[in-house]
Amino acid sequence: MLELKSFLAGRWVAGGGTGQTLLNPATEEPLARASSEGLDLRAALEYARAKGGPALRAMTFAERGALLKAMADAMQAERDRLLELGIANGGNTRSDAKFDIDGAIATLLHYVEISSQLGNRKFLVDSEGIQLGRSARFHGQHVCVPRHGVAVHINAFNFPAWGFAEKAAVALLAGMPVLSKPATSSAMLAHRVMEIIVEKKILPEGALSLLVGSPGSLVSLLGPQDVLAFTGSGDTAARIRASKNIIEYSVRVNVEADSLNAAVLGPDVEPRSDMYELFLKDVVRDMTQKAGQKCTAIRRVLVPKDNLSSVREDLIELLTAVKVGNPVDEEVRMGPLATASQLDDALQGLARLDGRLVFGENKRIPGKGFFLFPVLVDSPGDAVHEHEVFGPVASLLPYAGDAAALVARGNGGLVSSIYSDDQGFIEETALAIAPHHGRIFLGHPKIELSPGPGTVLPQLVHGGPGRAGGGEELGGARGLSFYLQRVALEGSRPVIQKLLG
Ligand code: NAP
Asked: What pTM did the predictor assign?
């Protein structure tokens, strides 16, 4: 069986022990084995700090951008093979796999564009300088310089290519070396991307490392100049945040966690109108794309009480047409869940929702593979505002009056969406839910090729308060700030100006 090695301290290394077997979730066929047992993570981090950091910091933003361009080109050249891996190891349909891989390439290219705007500088000058004294000589200027540690990236299983690339693009452009740890169950894709980057010698030594297998002591080895960007469950995030060294050294941590994203159908929207059809389309896409294993997927579907039965019937009709099965069959629209434990979690979560299942069942599809039909839940209990079922599951919530208060019960989310033509309703709802979210999607049928709320665009912030982890990623050039230390220079204006070049 294929053994996935880690790339640490400039070489490929295999862990010991039995490790974890990676499966094809549609067939349960074993595909590869991964272990990180016995790997010297301390030395790997030290190597990245000592070799990768200085090499990247010696480059300008434009030069670092050229590295990202080479990474994107290398992925593009091997796109077909990467799609195959996404289908086999991730249970993705071809379209799901494209969403992950093309999203990764597009995000890298977006940061290439930003690099050309930042040009020949090596660090950022933040805003205008400030006169501090009576004369112009006493001067202040904020600058943002790359931190001298390692950017450790821990990713969730659902976007092995995009998760790897969206974090790496921003950190490398900022000038920090990266150690990336994909979720073990779906690591084949990130592993292949790393192989391509190493084979083509795209990056300076130490600029990028990959840890395949369980994280071991990784988090406990981080120090004051390091940063940790984590994507995964709120429970794991809480454990990471409680690590002694994270607290003691104030290690900068960004968390992207769970989210109970809502979609609100406005009271003005008539069944069969374009807005109504767009709403249905976005709900069904989010329930079925990647078998609902998307952090941004719509989980709570808020519908005016009077339109509940119409929306329910129409969603059932659309879901009936979704063919579930092995994604190698091109007619299949929804693949399996990623692992047996994800399927168990989804089934347990469904039971917790305690609602009426109006489509789908709370049991796996018999036979090989971790399959579940999409499940539409009507009028669930309070758990719908507390527990994320990470699968093809959404709940219908009838409302009369204050939709925003219902949305806010999710306690902080990545994205919620509003579908309405009533400007008053849009403004009132958007402003009321804004403090609880990282992004608000305003659905409109006239937006060409609307990606729906579930697509994360690199131009906009990704993250959210509260349950969503309190983090912020991407958002164009702003995303760099996580990897930079803002420092105020205070002194004589000519001296500061010379220093800034
Ligand atoms: P998870 O179990 O928390 O795992 C996430 C990552 O953390 C994996 O790489 C995992 O490694 C690693 N990990 C596990 N225990 C750790 C520890 N003690 N210290 C350091 N790292 C540790 O989450 P998941 O099941 O992969 O992902 C599903 C969850 O992620 C869902 O709740 C979903 O909402 C959330 N998610 C959020 C976003 C977002 O952007 N907000 C995106 C995607 C997913 P192993 O795989 O080796 O165990």
From this structure: 0.96
